[in-house]
Design brief:
With about 400 residues, the protein is mainly beta. The chain has four domains: about 120 residues, Immunoglobulin-like (Sandwich); about 80 residues, Immunoglobulins (Immunoglobulin-like, Sandwich), CATH 2.60.40; about 80 residues, Immunoglobulins (Immunoglobulin-like), CATH 2.60.40; about 110 residues, Immunoglobulin-like (Sandwich), CATH 2.60.40. The protein has one helix and 37 strands. Strands 1, 2, 4, 7 and 8 form a five-stranded mixed β-sheet that branches. It has a four-stranded mixed β-sheet with strand order 10-17-16-13, with no helix packed on it.
Length: about 400
């Protein structure tokens, strides 16, 4: 038997009067245990007084314990209904009390009940990922507390191009950007569950990388990546950044002060609110100080083809080269390639004319002798200047000797 507490207070002479009037002397709640409820499924159970017990005007309340979360008690004289939608599974014990109407008597009774709430059928997860226009989409809805045998959309609609299969899979290829809200109903034949979803479809995220940049070691730089499409704001990230270089996760700007020479490949990704992402890359060239490494020029020979290359190191490309100082006739300097080439031609010397006396049988004769003299070696002083794309400058003084 369910535990009960019965309280009766009777005034003198009232018993006989009540008996004559046909009014019940004691309250009694009819037998009947409330059924099991399920989380998320509407619930209702009505308690009743036993036939002939109590009098009109009975009130109901929970004297101790508690109803399952989501349920409440509503009394209506001879009945009391527990109703609502349970929100949490568990076994909930409570004492239900019925109190007779005030009068020359007070009579009440209470009984202990338990309402079990099971997890029931539930659609999981609570949200669905977003999609992109023109990109195949697929996501599987599932249930806990049972296996659904049918799935339907009961309110709203899926984005254009997507459908809900009878096994709970949302699939297809979105055809236009949208933000769609819809309600899905799942049933296993005896239990049902519903859940509302919002599915966003956006144009694909496209990241645009900036042009390649050049910076000297220890110098600061900032390059900005940009993105379009998707659902903003974007979350920016990068991989493989060296010491001294960082990314702003909110703006997509990458910058810092590199500490070593070499090329830094920046691979930057933008991820939108729907979780879709795109990556683009660029290169930052980190260079040292520009210098001219050629320290001497080999000797040139007059009338022979000559070629020498001016070597440089460091600096940002392209380099601009200049030559100050006069070159030997026949040589040219290619500032683009840094090449000194041609056939040098030294200035000819005037011939040496001498008069000699030639003794002959007929007498002495004076003979004019012309001596052709070779050009003299000549040393030229050349000043080379190199300037890089960052404005760094280097110079070198070299000597070129041309011999006959």
């Amino acid at each position: 038997m369910r535990p009960r507490v019965l309280t009766v207070a009777v005034l003198a002479g009232v018993v006989a009067a009540l008996a004559v009037a046909g009014v019940g002397l004691a309250l009694d709640i009819a037998d009947g245990d409330p059924p099991t409820g399920y989380v998320g499924v509407p619930y209702s159970f009505t308690f009743e007084l036993s036939q002939g017990s109590g009098s009109p005007g009975v009130t109901w309340n929970i004297s101790s314990g508690a109803l399952p979360p989501g349920l409440s008690l509503h009394g209506n004289d001879r009945t009391a209904t527990v109703s609502g939608t349970p929100t949490q599974a568990g076994a909930y014990r409570f004492y239900l009390q019925a109190v007779d109407a005030p009068g020359p008597w007070v009579c009440c009774t209470e009984s202990l009940y338990t309402i079990n709430v099971a997890e029931g059928l539930k659609i999981i997860p609570e949200s669905v990922p977003g999609g992109n226009v023109g990109t195949a989409y697929g996501f599987q809805l599932r249930t806990s507390g049972g296996t659904a045998s049918s799935w339907t959309v009961t309110a709203g609609s899926l984005p254009a191009g997507l459908t809900l299969d009878n096994n709970g899979a949302i699939s297809g290829t979105p055809t236009s950007a949208s933000l769609s809200t819809f309600t899905v109903r799942a049933s296993d034949g005896s239990l049902t569950a519903t859940r509302q979803f919002t599915l966003g479809v956006a144009e694909p995220v496209v990241v645009t990388a900036p042009d390649e940049a050049t910076v000297k070691v220890g110098g600061s730089f900032v390059v900005s990546f940009s993105a379009k499409g998707g659902v903003q704001p974007y979350a920016w990230s990068a991989t493989g950044l060296p010491t001294g270089v960082n990314i702003d996760a909110a703006t997509g700007k990458v910058g810092g002060r590199p500490t070593a020479e070499g090329d830094i490949r920046l691979s930057v990704t933008a991820t939108d609110m729907l979780g879709t992402a795109h990556t683009a890359s660029t290169v930052v060239h980190v260079v040292g100080k520009v210098s001219i490494t050629t320290t001497e020029l080999r000797t040139a020979r007059n009338g022979r083809r000559y070629r020498a290359t001016l070597e440089t190191e460091g600096g940002g490309k392209p380099l601009t080269l200049r030559l100050l100082g006069g070159l030997p006739r026949g040589l040219t300097f290619d500032a683009t390639q840094g090449v000194l080439q041609g056939v040098p031609k030294l200035a000819a010397r005037k011939p040496l004319v001498k008069t000699k006396v030639k003794h002959t049988a007929s007498g002495d004769k004076r003979v004019r002798v012309v001596i052709q003299r070779k050009p003299l070696p000549h040393r030229y002083t050349l000043y080379f200047i190199a300037r890089d794309s960052l404005g760094q400058r280097a110079s070198q003084k070299l000597h070129l000797t041309v011999v006959p």
